[in-house]
Write a structure and sequence with these properties.
Blueprint lengths: L6 H22 L2 E3 L2 E3 L2 E4 L2 E13 L2 E10 L6 H6 L4 E7 L3 E2 H15 L2 H5 L2 H14 L1 E2 L4 E7 L3 E6 L2 E7 L2 H12 L8 H5 L5
Antiparallel strand pairs: 1-2, 3-4, 4-5, 5-6, 6-9, 7-8, 9-10, 10-11
Helix pairs in contact: 3-5, 3-6
GO molecular function, one term: isomerase activity
Keywords: Isomerase, Signal
Protein name: Chalcone isomerase family protein
């Protein structure tokens, strides 16, 4: 049996299809940031996370990496990101080659700038383990992708190009201390912070 669409119904169907087609790309397409395709979602601990924001880490005039931040629900303040429940992810895609020592030292400097001595004293062992990941990596090459996931009940789980590196770091306070490198009062890149909070990349 074949159904024939009346002209009126046919117009409505076409309009609805057009609206749906126009809406889908905004929710499904990757975002281009400095030539890197940043996916709109990521799956961590069995949950789908939404892209909160993404931008470029620039040192002087050199583009170092693209960073993307994923949360269960979008947040527009640093405090809200740090308090966000459930799994989280940040991902760095390298735009140039950086030695593991330089990468690790830059991270440590960012943590030191955005935490006090008492806070850091709680994470001595995790700081050491975090730094060792980059020393052991040797060199981060252009195109390499570092992901750092917060997995409730497990800790901070890191991977480079999809391969797990290091041991889980169990304290959410330490995960937040790492996030403060970009979202703290003294962010490593003042233009990247608002981009991660949903502003213009």
């Amino acid at each position: 049996m074949h159904l024939r669409l009346t002209p009126r119904l046919n117009r409505r169907t076409l309009i609805a299809a057009g609206l749906l087609a126009a809406a889908l790309p905004w929710s499904a397409q990757a975002m281009d940031v400095a030539g890197v395709n940043v996916e709109p979602t990521a799956k961590v601990a069995g949950k789908e996370l939404k892209l909160n924001g993404a931008g470029v880490r620039t040192r002087v005039i050199i583009k170092v990496y693209v960073m993307a931040l994923y949360l269960t629900e979008k947040k527009d303040t640093a405090a809200a990101v740090l308090d966000a429940p459930g799994p989280r992810r940040f991902a760095l895609t390298m735009l140039r080659e950086v030695t593991g020592d330089d990468f690790g030292q830059a991270f440590m400097a960012g943590i030191t700038a955005n935490t006090d001595k008492a806070e850091r004293s709680k994470f001595v062992n995790q700081l050491a383990a975090f730094g060792e990941v980059f020393v052991n990596q040797g060199t981060m090459k252009k195109g390499d992708v570092l992901t750092a996931d917060w997995v409730p009940g497990t800790g901070m789980v890191m991977a480079i190009n999809g391969k797990s590196v290091g041991e889980p770091l169990p304290d959410v306070g330490f995960y937040n201390a790492v996030l403060k490198i970009w979202l703290g009062e003294k962010p490593v890149d003042t233009s990247l912070k608002p981009a991660l909070l949903g502003g213009k990349a």
